[in-house]
Specification:
The chain has about 120 residues and is mainly β. It is built from two helices and eight strands; from the N terminus they run E-E-E-H-E-E-E-E-H-E.
């Protein structure tokens, strides 16, 4: 038996851009991608704290230190600049492995989207 568990979580970052004229995805500051252990192209769920929307998309690398969190393509209809989102990825694993697994969770500064010292 396998179950799906939280693998990574970027907790409460502010959307800095929403770009409808793009094929899709979420652009995330490269520092945040590395800090939490995401992979470019990885499927993520985006949870919008402001309106309760939940959507799935994939990660695109953003400029390091920029604080960028940009919803691209159709997902840009689901968020507004300034909204607070939580970005989560999941992994499938066996029950015993899951019991010992600890997700990578970061809590960036909510106003700058940068890692806290």
């Amino acid at each position: 038996m396998t179950i799906e568990v939280v693998r990574t979580k970027i907790h409460r970052v502010r959307v800095t851009e929403a770009n409808l004229d793009y094929i899709g995805s979420i652009t995330i500051d490269g520092d945040l991608i590395d800090a939490v252990g995401l992979v470019e192209g990885e499927k993520v769920q985006v949870l919008n704290v402001n309106n309760g929307e939940r959507l799935e998309t994939y990660v695109i690398w953003g400029e390091r230190g920029s604080g960028v969190i940009c919803m691209n393509g159709p997902a840009a209809h689901k968020v507004q600049v300034g909204h607070i989102v939580i970005i989560v990825s999941y992994a499938q694993m066996g029950l015993e492995e899951a019991r010992g697994f600890r997700p990578s969770i970061i809590f960036p500064d909510e106003t700058t989207n940068r890692l806290r010292p």
